[in-house]
Amino acid sequence: MQRAVVGQMSTGAILEGAEKYQRIAQTMGLPRDNH
Q1: Are 28 and 19 in contact (CB under 8 A)?
Q2: pLDDT tens column, 10-29
Q3: Is the pLDDT of residue 7 over 60?
């Protein structure tokens, strides 16, 4: 199952679909403390 969702080494071997969550603090700002 893991091999089905992990990309190739040439693209960083990260989970497919996780690209949009990388560097989210730089693009969207730090998250708020909702507690």
Answers
A1: no
A2: 666 667 667 677 777 777 77
A3: yes
C-alpha 28/C-alpha 30 separation (Å) is 7
Structure tokens at 20: 């949009």
CA 11, chain centre distance (Å): 13
Residue 12: per-residue pLDDT: 62
Residues with Cβ < 8 Å from 6, sequence gap 6 or more? 13, 14, 15, 16
Computed from CA positions of residues 7, 11, 15, 18, in that sequence, does the dihedral angle turn out positive or negative? negative
Cα 13 from Cα 32, distance rounded (Å): 30
Cβ atoms within 10 Å, residue 29: 8
